Amino acid sequence: MADTKRPSKDQYYLNIAKEIGERSTCFRAKNGAIIVRDDQIIATGYIGAPRKTKDCLERGNCLRDKLKIPHGERYELCRSVHAEQNAIINAARAGVSLYGGALYLHSKDREGNRVSTYPCYFCKRMIINAGIERVVCSEKEENNMRIFYVKDWVEEWREKDIVDDKYQYGEDQNQKEGLK
């Protein structure tokens, strides 16, 4: 008898986000994002430079690496647009509403290893304003994920400040690379 075990819907969508991330043009990470509403994929995105501009692969270097900037900091000095941002932008270009949707985010480090990934502060703000309700992120351990409800981010930011977020992207990579 054939194996009939199917991945959960969340794992299925994370697997698709993982494949989307393979298109990334970032030296530091391969992140892929998809946005799903009513059980239909409505937008995808991966890390990459703005359309028609040179990306890190074409330039042969990462500006943030050259400047020794830790993961999760100083994104204004990055050539790339994050996977989550590109998925939101791609939906806008197509005239698709994200209201009530879910965003799935998968990440691998520069060596191709899974890492625990969370949206940065810029992306969280965009996700909140886009009306996305749920964010499902891959964890370092295979087939593990962390689910965030956007309404909880809003509540937390009412009580605390944005920098008090418990889950911040890049902490494990910074330790491994000696950046912090």
Indicate the topology.
Elements: H1 9-21, E1 29-37, E2 40-46, H2 56-59, H3 63-66, H4 83-94, E3 102-109, H5 121-130, E4 134-138, E5 145-149, H6 150-159, H7 171-177
Parallel strand pairs: 3-4
Antiparallel strand pairs: 1-2, 1-3, 4-5
Task: List descriptors.
5-stranded mixed β-sheet; 19% strand; 180 residues
Written overview of the protein:
- There is one protein chain.
- The chain has 180 residues and is an alpha+beta fold.
- It has seven helices and five strands; from the N terminus they run αββαααβαββαα.
- A five-stranded mixed β-sheet has the order 2-1-3-4-5.
- The N and C termini lie far apart (51 Å).
- Mean of the pLDDT scores? 89
Q: Give, in spatial order, the strands making up the sheet with the most strands.
A: 2-1-3-4-5
N- to C-terminal distance: 51 Å
What order do the SSEs take from the amino end to the carboxyl end, as H and E?
HEEHHHEHEEHH
β-sheet strand percentage = 15-25%
| Residue windows where pLDDT falls under 50 for at least 5 positions | none
What profile does the largest beta sheet have? 5 strands, mixed
Shape: globular
Number of strands: 5
Radius of gyration: 16 Å
Structural class: alpha+beta
Q: How many helical elements?
A: 7
Helix content range: 25-40%
